[in-house]
Amino acid sequence: MHKLIAIAPLALILSACVSGGGYKPVADRLPPLKVSFADPAWTGKQIPSGQHCQMFDGQGATPPLLVENIPAGANAIIVEYNDLSFAPLSYGGGHGKIGFWHEGGERALLPAAPGETAKLPAGSFVEARALSTGSYASPGYLPPCSGGRGNLYVADVKAVYKARKEGEENRLLAEQRITLGNY
Fold first, then answer.
1. pTM of this structure
2. What is the pLDDT along the chain (183 residues), one digit of tens a residue?
3. Domain that includes residue 12, residue range
4. Tally of domains within the chain
5. Residue 26 sits in a domain of what CATH number?
6. Would you list the DSSP string of the chain?
7. Are strands 24-25 and 171-182 parallel, antiparallel or unpaired?
């Protein structure tokens, strides 16, 4: 029994490295990213028509985003999608976490990633599937799916160093929230 207890913390430490675990902030106060919509249909007020889940006859995708002020050392941008009006999916990427590899520079244009699938554009990946279950389950991003009840959706955009080798740590370098809108 004692051996299992000793191994469990080691497994948690290893899961935070290479395997896509949590990101350790590099400072107490992280610099903000500048995040804006790259598609004028997205205004931050209402979710655009058709950009909701299939359950409500949508074919939603993530909005394309322009991310600026990316710090040196970032090799990926992770976007966590949340429904602030529905507690179980309101934090930590409740509607999924989508990653986009970044090859340097202070700017990145993140393409739209389709919802309710794990098949994403080249250079992007599912960091973590949506936390939804049952009819709402999704292997990646779950588009807004409140049925037009006016729920508020946001995206937390994070510039990170995603560990690529054993022994490296995932690091959070900068972040910013953008309001996607109500649905």
1. 0.88
2. 333 333 333 333 333 333 345 999 999 999 999 999 999 999 999 999 999 999 999 999 999 999 999 999 999 999 999 999 999 999 999 999 999 999 999 999 999 999 999 999 999 999 999 999 999 999 999 999 999 999 999 999 999 999 999 999 999 999 999 999 999
3. 2-182
4. 1
5. 3.90.280
6. -HHHHHHHHHHHHHHTTTSS---EESSSSPPBPEEEESSTT--SSBPPTT-S-GGGT---BPPPEEEE-PPTT--EEEEEEEETTSGGGSSSSTT-EEEEE--SSSEEEEPP-BSS-S---TTEEEEE--S--GGG--SS-----S-SS--EEEEEEEEEE---STT---EEEEEEEEEEEE-
7. parallel
Encoded amino acid at 180, one letter: L
Amino acid 74 reads: A
Q: Which residue has the tokens 């992280």?
A: 30
